[in-house]
Amino acid sequence: MVKLPGIEQHGKTPVGDRIRREQVINYTSTFPPAPDLSHTNYTNLGLYLIVIHQRTGRIMGAPDHFQPWSDLSRLAALVPTIQPGRIMVAMLRGDLSYGVPEVTRVTLGRLGSHAAPGVLGRGVAWAWAWVKGGRTLGEAVVVPDREGRVTHHCPNWPRSKLWDERRIFCDKYERYGDLCACLHPHPIRRHIVNSRIGNSAIIIIAHRAADLYRSLKSLYAATGFDSRRLEIFTPHPHTELSSLLVLLSLRLTVTYRQGIFVASHITSQFVFALSFVLEKYEDADFLIVLEEDVALSPDFFVYLNRTADLLERDRTLFCVSAHNDLSYPSTASDPRAVIRTASYTNYGWMIRRDFAVEMSKGLPGGDVEASWDVFTYFFLRKGRECVIPEVSRSYHFGHGGTNINQLTSHLYFANKHYNTDPRMLVEGVEELEQQKYEETIHRMLQKSTPINPLTHNPCSDDFYTLFNVTENEVLILFFHFEGDIDKFRSSEEWVDLATCLGTFALESRESHHGLYRLKYGPAHLFLIAYPASRYSTYMPEGMAVFRSTPEVRMAAFKKGMGRLRHQPYHLRPLQDYYHILATGTT
Q1: pLDDT tens digits, residue range 526-552?
Q2: Dihedral of the alpha carbons of 488, 491, 495, 500, in degrees to the nearest 10
Q3: In a domain, 297, yes or no
Q4: pLDDT score recorded for residue 481
Q5: Are the C-beta atoms of residues 113 and 89 closer than 8 Å to each other?
Q6: Which helix (DSSP H) or strand (DSSP E) does residue 474 occupy?
Q7: Which domain holds residue 471?
Q8: Omega into 68 within 30° of 0, i.e. cis?
Q9: CA-CA distance, 255 to 237, in Å (whole number)?
Q10: 390, 270 in Cβ contact below 8 A?
Q11: DSSP labels, 516-550
Q12: Domain boundary among 110, 142, 174
């Protein structure tokens, strides 16, 4: 077992045959003291001067080092030997026990330093970057208090064990925004009693601490969250993550699970987490699974609460998902609407206890290359569907992962939208019972208006203005697909059509037996896979089917990848860059 410095490790928790006793660690706070600079090698202390080439960015020669007891006045003789325009960096490392001599402070002040003439004394930490013969690029200074101690982060914060731990954390780590804001720090709230889904357990698997904090902020802000039912898991000991969760009084469990492949590694973490929670929370009727890089709507738990009875009652469902992969401004507009689809479990979802058991037993081991969500969709759900909102109750803000990169994130995730109004609650959940929902779909199709893609091209720039529609009117568009609709992941037709309509095109998502529900202004727009869908019988005789052609692919490219093209960057002459850097003008 790995021993982390400054972290106590308590008793190992047995959680069943599948979980080894040594795999669980609970963290509590015992932070190491601030470093004592008196133990530093004194030959490395003092004033450093670094010279950087303004064009290449390379450090020019070894840094000049002035030890605390040396004759710092020789700095005045050194600076004139440096060529104008060079980028220079001066910094104090450690404590110049006797301060900085006046002649040195005067020299630095004449060169342009604001802090050097009157501030650089004993115990002061300081760094300054400037252009030789030009402007200051940046200067920072930390001044000790009257007792000689360097002030820690945000001295105006209250004095208590919790706030002192937050100071130490914010001095060590960055990218936490208002958690470490001095003027308006984010309040850490706990133990909000969840009166809606009282006995559910919540799972998060995390390893990126800053992303997790952003996600937790939205979780704490959601009505009905109970932190006492939250379990966070990570594959390996993680000092920054554990320190963050100490501040929030949240538990962290290290799984120590491995997988041969990236996908199987993640799956093994998920199986461990399910097994752990199922055994620890024997009273949990539902399990809620979140992710470290997902923000939640303020009505997230209200949405789950309103759909929980249906999930329990209708065994043709296996989950309630907060995320609709087709939730874009142009294709989803009613935050009150809910639908049922064959959905992937991603970005915030809830399952019954019995299906959690199915997943914990049915997901493959660490030696099989399989993503848990894909495996669940194709092999474990067995024809069952999920309840999803028309407008998502979660937003994936991560820019990378196992299956996406920064490009796909920009193309398909950045422009998704989700509900941010706590007053817009879902309605009509009872109409999603299987038989009622089928009857509703057939009624809507019977009064629908088919779209001929040859005369009303969905890839044209004016497609969303071609029809004058009213609320609840139904338009249908058939696209070509032959094969088993339950195994359909993608095709040229789907990629081009989804891209042209401004919705998710990486894969076919949110299908209900080959029917995809979008919005066309206030009206409904149904996309139907022909002839694979059971609803293909509603295609009128002689109606054209959307197919991918060279012209369609070019139009789709312009609406997708093509819109990311930028004007080429033209290099300026080197003397222009020198002038900008030296004078601060553009």
Answers
A1: 999 999 999 999 999 999 999 999 999
A2: -100
A3: no
A4: 96
A5: no
A6: strand 474-481
A7: 447-586
A8: no
A9: 9
A10: no
A11: EEEEETTEEEEEEEEETSGGGGGSPTT---B---H
A12: 142
Tokens of 577: 């860059």
C-alpha distance from residue 498 to each of 120, 126, 412 (Å): 62, 55, 11
Q: Does a structural domain hold residue 194?
A: no
Report the DSSP pairing between strands 27-29 and 7-9. Answer: antiparallel
pLDDT at 366 (0 to 100): 73
Supply the pLDDT for residue 95: 56
Band of the pLDDT at 69, cuts 50, 70, 90? low
Question: How far, in Å, are 122, 325, 480 from residue 485 at the CA level?
Answer: 74, 18, 12
Distance from first CA to last CA of the chain, Å, rounded? 56
Query: Dihedral of CA 532/538/539/542: which sign?
Result: positive
Q: Is residue 110 part of a domain?
A: yes
Average pLDDT estimate for 425-436? 96
Percent share of the chain, pLDDT over 70:
84
Residue in this structure with the two tokens 């991603």, named with its chain if needed: 346
Give the relative orientation of helices 262-280 and 353-362 as an angle to the nearest 10 degrees: 140
pLDDT tens-digit series, residues 441-462: 999 999 999 999 999 999 999 9
Q: How many residues does the chain have?
A: 586
Rounded Cα distance between 323 and 393, Å, is: 6
In sequence order, which residues have a C-beta less than 8 Å from that of residue 417 and are 6 or more positions away? Answer: 327, 328, 329, 332, 391, 392, 395
Q: Which two tokens stand for residue 531?
A: 């002839």
What CA–CA distance (Å, rounded) separates 226 from 334? 28
Beta bridge partners of 142: 125
Contact 529, 482 (CB under 8 A): no
Cβ neighbours of residue 258 closer than 8 Å, sequence gap 6 or more: 235, 265, 268, 366
Please list the alpha-helical segments (H only) found in 367-433.
372-375, 406-408
| Bridge partners of residue 92, in order along the sequence | 47
Element containing residue 127 per DSSP (H, E): strand 125-131
Rg (C-alpha) for the chain, rounded Å, is 30
Q: Where are the alpha helices (DSSP H) in 351-446?
A: 353-362, 372-375, 406-408, 434-446
For residue 41, the one-letter residue type is: N
Boundary residue ending a domain (142, 162, 180): 142
Residue 402 counted as domain residue:
no
Distance of alpha carbon 538 from its chain centroid, rounded?
Answer: 41
Residues 6+ apart with CB under 8 A from 240: 172, 173, 209
Token pair listed for 276:
């752990």
Average pLDDT over residues 561-567: 68
Nearest in space to 76 (alpha carbons), one of 100, 43, 42, 44: 100
Cα–Cα distances in angstroms (integers) from residue 531 to residues 223, 441, 482, 504, 524, in the given order: 44, 18, 6, 22, 21
| Total tally of structural domains belonging to the chain | 2
Is the Cα dihedral 531, 533, 536, 542 positive or negative? Answer: negative
Biggest distance spanned by C-alpha atoms of the chain: 96
